[in-house]
Amino acid sequence: MYRLMLLIALLSAPSVYAERALIIGGGAGYGTQGYHVGLNWLYPWRPLGAGQLVYGVGSEIAHWQYGADDLIQISLFPMVQYSVNPLTDFQPFVFAAVGPAWISDIRLGPRDLASEYQFSSRAGIGLAKGRHSLAAEARHLSNGGIKQPNEGINSWNLSYGYRF
Fold this sequence. Notes:
1 helix; 10 strands; Porin
């Protein structure tokens, strides 16, 4: 319980100057299904070409299933995003993130993840309008080779975001 309270305190600490976004979504790949909810803190960084470069920190809790097996994933990750035409109503964007993750079980169906400590990476494209956004992304969860076997989980996901 102490660890959970510490994690909540750390995740609520980012600056009040950040733009926050609630993200919910889900996806599937290689027989797995996953659902996630998270919070992102985004900071405008600098103009670049016809757009705006943004950096931030994301946190997430995900539930993965493979048949009757399931596991919980908790992640914290730095991220970067590039929004095209940030002053228009519709803003296309691309993003990428990678960071540490913890999982509740090292097996998910036939996949052996070998360690509770993993790396969560993602890259995708999306479209924002006002406070709302939709994104499609590729995700990969693996231990990065720190322990064998390193079978990992790959998935394609759709997500909805609400900035506040």
